[in-house]
Amino acid sequence: MTRGFFFPQDVYKIGGIGTVPVGRVETGKIKPGMVVAFAPNGPVTEVKSVEMHHEALLEANPGDNVGFNVKNVSVKDLKRGFVTSDSKNDPAKEAADFLAQVIVLNHPGQIQAGYSPVLDCHTAHIACKFAELVTKIDRRTGKELEANPKNVKSGDSCMVKMVPSKPMCVESFQQYSALGRFAVRDMKQTVAVGVIKDVTKKEAGAKTTKSAEKALKKK
């Protein structure tokens, strides 16, 4: 069964309905009655209804842009950059760190360990530290050219261990491409691009709403 991922673009408070995240279904399905987790550090709650163009849906599929009503959750609890997933099917979690292959496109100087630019990954926009330059590699063959390089510059490709400065949700590109690729932004431009190879995840301690507890007991 495919893990379902939904990317909320915006969150609205709608009178008489409640809190409604709006965005795109990336993989899997989302349907009423499902108990979803908002990662990296949001609540676990039940989906009350799913709508597309003001029509109620029995389920939403990949590519659908939908809104869904969640119970016992405030608009303040949900943020752009969160990933919504099925709480019972390997839900998305906060990343402690991740290993990525980075290609430096256009940087005026040299990039060293400690560099902390902003990463644009799915709807998240978060500063991440280049904690360790692991290897410099040939961007065409993937062969290692140098272990633990002191720095990298435009045109170089390298494996980098990265640490997010704030809670962030990513996956390996091979498993879920939309959560596994990013652009590195600095000086108002894209200075590098990357794909995520491996992720070390934090164990979630998310708040479960009363609505979710009831729904989980029913099943």
Automatic annotation (TrEMBL):
Function: This protein promotes the GTP-dependent binding of aminoacyl-tRNA to the A-site of ribosomes during protein biosynthesis.
Gene Ontology MF terms: GTP binding; translation elongation factor activity
CDD domains reported for this sequence: EF1_alpha_II, EF1_alpha_III
Organism (species): Hyalella azteca (Amphipod)
Residue span, GTP-eEF1A C-terminal domain: 98-197
Protein name, entry field: Translation elongation factor EFTu/EF1A C-terminal domain-containing protein
GO cellular component, one term: cytoplasm
Principal location class: cytoplasm
